[in-house]
Amino acid sequence: MIISKESIENHNSSKLVSHKKKYELLNTTLSESSIEVNAIIKKIQEFQVAIPSWALGTGGTRFGRFAGGGEPSTLEQKIEDVGLLHSINQSSGAISLHIPWDIPSDANKIKNLAASFGLKFDAVNSNTFQDQKNQKFSYKFGSLSNTDANARKQAIEHNIEVIKQGQALGSKSLTVWLADGSSFPGQQHFRRAFERTLDSLKEIYAALPSDWSIFTEHKAYEPAFYSSVVSDWGSSLLFAQKLGSKASCLVDLGHHLPNANIEQIVSRLMMEGKLGGFHFNDSKYSDDDLTVGSIKPYQLFLIFNELVDGMTSSEVKNPELGWMIDASHNIKDPLEDLLQSVEAIMIAYAQALIIDRKALENAQLNNDVVTAQEILQNAYRTDVRSLVAEARLLSGAALEPISFYRAQKIRQMLINERGTNSSASGL
Ligand SMILES: [Mn+2]
């Protein structure tokens, strides 16, 4: 379904008076602190977060799945759903595909369809964490690290195939997330498993087009419960450094052990010019894949503080970053959940942009711990929601995405169009 400009405009004019009241107040307060509000709004408008094709349907846990209706079951419908989100918030201008589920039968047609919604193709994702039908060699004991050279070769070829699929669509990067690891002590030789993986990655790296990047994504545990081959940011950085300039690390917020200082990891990776991108989500206990900012919004803000520092400092030479949401929606309407996640990202980004960096640096140099904390928390406790809404208004998006989505009865229309039993493919 297509969202008309007119329906957005009608929504915005009904919300305009109350929005302007809040925004003018904030604008005055921020301007009094010499914050360049217009420059911040421009940055927020430019910030685009990719939506993965697997986040458009209802996820589940190993205990069950409670599917909603109207889920996209074809690649075309997945693109339509991301297009729908983008027309509501103008901040979701890219889609990330997962192969083998999203192989287009006609790449040009799919490219044109995405372009008609103003969407680009973000990183393509390979999948060697499960066996596909008629697959010759099993990944039960690993893919790129498997002790069997045949299984490794098959996994390498799959990744190269994914690059080709991505090339046809205009994607520029490949994300490799490895489920490889061991579930019991003694099962796997740590060094040899690393070396086999590196050799496999080298072959994939060699097949990368010149303008492509490859991201390694670390995860502490799960599905392997004792060790992962790419267990932490240190291992991920080793792979990226050994592979070369086209390789960098991807940070998924849910892939850390409890209480890990993710913002410091971000700073370290950017310092080395090796932070390639982000997978946003939130978690309470492990890799919960919950809505961004729903559990630890202060952590998200602190991460954006480091990101903004790294992106604006002349001392840091990090490549441009790729942003994506990697969440699972077990009990919410996936589209509403994604709107909430994008909003949370924009709020954290805006709060990080209003930090007085000069004053923070001075406080740090003078070891003024109290002032440093005050500066960060002043920014974090500023309600920037109307600033983010103003950026949306200027971009032609809806002032209040969720209320627009509900008022338009979009889920019901998708159910009418696709039925109650449509099921999104992929993970
Ligand atoms: Mn991820």
CA-CA gap between termini = 23 Å
Along the chain, the helix and strand elements come as HHEHEHEEHEEHEEHEHEHEHHHHHH
The largest sheet has its strands arranged as 4-5-7-9-10-11
Bound molecules: manganese (II) ion
Mean pLDDT: 96
Say how many strands there are: 11
Please, what is the oligomeric state? single chain
- Biggest beta sheet attributes: 6 strands, parallel
Query: Low-confidence spans: pLDDT under 50, at least 5 residues?
Result: none
Strand percent estimate: 5-15%
Given the C-alpha coordinates, what overall shape results?
A: globular
CA-based gyration radius: 22 Å
| Helical proportion, percent range | 40-55%
User: Number of helical segments?
Assistant: 15
**Coarse structural class:** alpha/beta
Structure characterization notes:
The chain has 427 residues and is an alpha/beta fold. It is built from 15 helices and 11 strands. The chain is globular and about 65 Å long. 46% of the residues are buried. The site of manganese (II) ion (MN) has 5 residues, from loops.
